[in-house]
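Researcher: I need the complex structure. Ligand is zinc ion. Inputs:
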Amino acid sequence: MRSTKRTDTSPELALRSVLHRAGARFRKDYPVKTEHRSVRPDIVFPARRLAVFVDGCFWHRCPEHGTQPRAHGDFWRAKLDRNVERDRETDAALEAAGWRVFRCWEHEPPEEAAVRILSVLDQRTENSRK
Ligand SMILES: [Zn+2]
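Model: Output:
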């Protein structure tokens, strides 16, 4: 089975390079421990406890481009449903561990996603749950 977790796909690379140029300090391939498992977000700001995911339009069912193959429809429906379900579980696990989660779509211009991420980083965090 091909992994749905592709690292260094070009939308991620583009976003990382915009963030890098903006002077943001982030890590990739940084495992975040949650209660039951560790999660590897696409981009991590460890000091700010912010996890960023760049979701693929197909695999994560983007409302604009998410399509379902007609062939083997049941298989794909179940598989994509599971992906989306797993995304929500991951978000909940990270939030329970005191992290904030930011998701953007691979179709979003990296500059726009970066602006949103930088503004999340600027927000005050002391009210975040432990
Ligand atoms: Zn999309």
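Model: Summary of the prediction. The radius of gyration is 15 Å.
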